[in-house]
Specification:
About 70% of the residues lie in helices and about 0% in strands. It is built from 8 helices and no strands.
């Protein structure tokens, strides 16, 4: 607790930012669709940019949303440079995050659901995905997101609305496709 003579730090340098927020940046980049093998390099790039910008100044909103803004740009650049290589979803990494005590059926269902969530997130453009993840997953307010990303709050609301709608449509479409596969197999068996 600060008394009247103490003040909030004027700014946070890249070192302080890294120590406090590196795990957040890594999670955020993963949710933006960064390849697992690239995340360490991308995190480093985010903090290099933060250093070049002189660190975080509190009037820029929250440190997490400011870093998220940098991470979105870094992820966009990485995506553009890797367009020549086909992207593949690392569903195996998802299974490593599951509880070891879950039974095999639970693990399969959760893995499949997480894979659908990741594919639905991948269906969003990067700006929508950033707002969606910051609001829905990280719990940031729309005002903090707007300040951190440097966009009007109305733009955040618009992107969030569109992202929710597009995410739900993509997730529902994948769920329907999954439910049709067993039915098709049953129909194939009937004709044999």
């Amino acid at each position: 607790m600060m008394d009247g003579s103490e003040q909030a730090p004027a700014h946070l340098g890249a070192r302080e930012l890294f120590l406090a927020h590196a795990p957040f940046v890594a999670r955020f980049l993963a949710r933006l669709g960064a390849q697992p093998a690239d995340i360490d390099d991308l995190v480093q790039e985010v903090f290099l940019v933060a250093h070049r910008l002189g660190g975080f100044i509190p009037d820029r909103g929250r440190a997490t949303t400011w870093l998220a803004h940098i991470a979105v740009r870094i992820a966009s650049n990485a995506r553009r440079t890797r367009r020549r290589r086909p992207e593949h979803q690392d569903d195996e990494a998802l299974t490593q995050q599951l509880s070891p005590g879950a039974d095999p059926q639970q693990r399969a269902e959760v893995t499949e659901s997480l894979a659908r969530v990741n594919r639905a997130l991948a269906a969003l453009d990067i700006d929508q995905r950033a707002v969606f993840v910051l609001f829905e997953v990280e719990g940031e307010t729309c005002e903090a997101i707007a300040l951190g990303l440097g966009v009007p709050v109305g733009t955040v609301y618009s992107r969030l609305y569109r992202a929710r709608k597009d995410f739900q449509q993509a997730y529902d479409r994948m769920t329907k496709e999954r439910s049709r596969v067993p039915r098709l197999r049953q129909e194939e068996g009937a004709y044999r």
